[in-house]
Write a structure and sequence with these properties.
The protein has about 450 residues and is α+β, with helices and mostly antiparallel strands. Helix content is about 30%, strand content about 20%. It contains 15 helices and 16 strands. Strands 5-4-7-6-8-11-12-13 form an 8-stranded mixed sheet, sandwiched between helices. A 6-stranded antiparallel sheet has the order 9-10-3-2-1-14, with helices on one face. A hairpin with a 4-residue loop joins β11 and β12. α12 runs antiparallel to α13. The N and C termini lie far apart (about 65 Å).
């Protein structure tokens, strides 16, 4: 490490590595310590593919992985303890476009400014709609409904009011954590006034920050309607709440995109990147020999480890049943659909490439939902039933590790996935238990 710091005075790449380590170093520990420390630079690969993923078309692109190991000697005669840190660096396509222009590889892109790149985000949604076919555009597990079998309300972000809508309209949904914050809600008392033009204009400042950001985000995406539970469900009407909860699977599966507020602990945490100065990104970069390099930002899987959003019961099916989602994090915006994973700091989409590396994709159920969708074993055989049962139980196991404020909601918050399983596979469920699978083990 001392050698690296010495070389950083004359080597721009070494200086870059020192800045990477210094930025991520814990504040109470010096960069150079008395302990023995080593640094190694290795080439790592992230899998990607063009078109449908198969073993034949799966490829990889290279990143540099920086491994730092601190070997601390605890006391005489006791083995040292290793502390490791890993950072990834990727090559950027040159700003002037001359170098690497014809290379088929995947390159990074620098992030600047305090707002998300909504031109890029709109491009992701359009590419998914135009190129991914039925996999990302169809609601494969249920009959397409034009009119909802329940009072389906939407927020009209242009007219600033609540209106009755249809499931075949283009709308976005919001997945977020309420927390313990007091917030403005639709009730039987204020519903009529909120349905008039600019009905919630006078209440706008009372809306939680995440809802305000979701309304602004929906407008910037060019979508007119938004579904938010606090505004689209009459919160003091138990009958209306039950109707909406029982059809949550329909609501999220028909949406064009789900906005995921994965940061913070409550409804006032907002969507980073939607407003000016709503996020602060410090992405280190350098130029060496005409090539540009930058420190990669965390993958969606790494970004949300330990997030409150990822621990809540309701958010499980909200993510699972959505066609496509946008994760808003303090690092960047991530797009994920049933086919691809894209992000602001890596140029996957221009190469028509998909990040298929499971260490990169955010999947709260480890691919089990995709397994359910693609089971091709003939229906009715014992092998089919057993395989389906095992896959379904893994989903249940992951879901039951989550938390709900009201434990009586455990079946309700999983009902959309139950509907999918029963519709696609004809499996009868009783209180979440698959009856046919139980009979297969008799």
């Amino acid at each position: 490490m001392v050698d690296l710091i010495t070389r950083s005075r004359t080597c721009s790449f070494c200086d870059f590595l020192v800045r990477v380590l210094a930025q991520n170093q814990q504040s109470d520990r010096p960069l150079v310590r008395e302990d023995s420390s080593t640094l190694s630079l290795r080439r790592s690969r992230l899998s990607w593919s063009r078109g449908p993923v198969t073993d034949k078309n799966a490829r990889s692109f290279s990143r540099f992985k920086v491994h730092v190991a601190y070997n601390r000697k605890l006391s005489q005669g006791i083995n040292s303890r290793n502390e490791r840190s890993i950072y990834q660096i990727q090559l950027l396509r040159n700003k002037n476009g001359s170098l690497l222009a014809k290379s088929p590889g995947i390159f990074g892109r620098p992030l600047t400014g305090t707002e998300a790149n909504f031109d890029l985000i709109r491009c992701w949604i359009t590419l998914c709609k135009d190129k991914h076919g039925m996999r990302c555009n169809a609601v494969s597990w249920t009959t397409m409904h034009r009119s909802a079998p329940f009072p389906f309300r939407l927020v009209d972000v242009e007219s600033k009011c609540i209106c009755l809508g249809r499931l075949d309209w283009e709308y976005a949904t919001l997945s977020y954590v309420w927390g313990n914050e007091e917030m403005f809600k639709t009730t039987g008392h204020n519903l009529q006034s909120l349905q008039g033009t600019e009905g919630f204009e006078m209440h706008y400042d009372r809306l939680p920050k995440t809802t305000q950001d979701a309304i602004l985000c929906t407008k910037r995406l060019g979508i007119r309607y938004l579904w938010v539970d606090s505004l689209c469900i009459i919160q003091d009407d138990e009958r209306d709440k039950l109707h909406q909860i029982q059809n949550m699977g329909l609501i999220y599966s028909h949406a064009q995109v789900t906005l995921i507020a994965a940061e913070g602990n409550n409804a006032n945490s907002g969507l980073p990147g939607v407003r000016p100065d709503s996020r602060s990104i410090n992405q280190l970069s350098t130029s060496v020999g005409g090539l540009d390099f930058a420190l990669t930002l965390p993958s969606p899987k790494a970004a949300f480890v330990g997030s409150l959003w990822g621990s809540r019961g309701w958010t499980f099916q909200e993510f699972a049943l959505s066609k496509r989602v946008l994760f808003f994090s303090r690092y960047q915006v991530y797009f994920q659909c049933r086919s691809d994973t894209w992000c602001e700091d890596t140029d996957f989409e221009s190469r028509d490439a998909s990040a298929i590396d499971h260490s990169y994709r955010h999947d709260t159920h480890d691919g089990y939902l995709d397994m359910l969708r693609t089971l091709v074993i003939p229906t009715g055989t014992q092998e089919y039933i057993v395989t389906l049962f095992k896959t379904y139980t893994k989903l249940v196991r992951n879901y039951t590790r989550r938390f709900l404020s009201d434990e009586t909601d455990y079946l309700h918050a999983f009902s959309g996935i139950e509907d999918m399983v029963q519709s696609l596979y004809g499996m009868t469920l009783l209180w979440g238990l698959p009856i046919e699978a139980s009979m297969a083990f008799d």
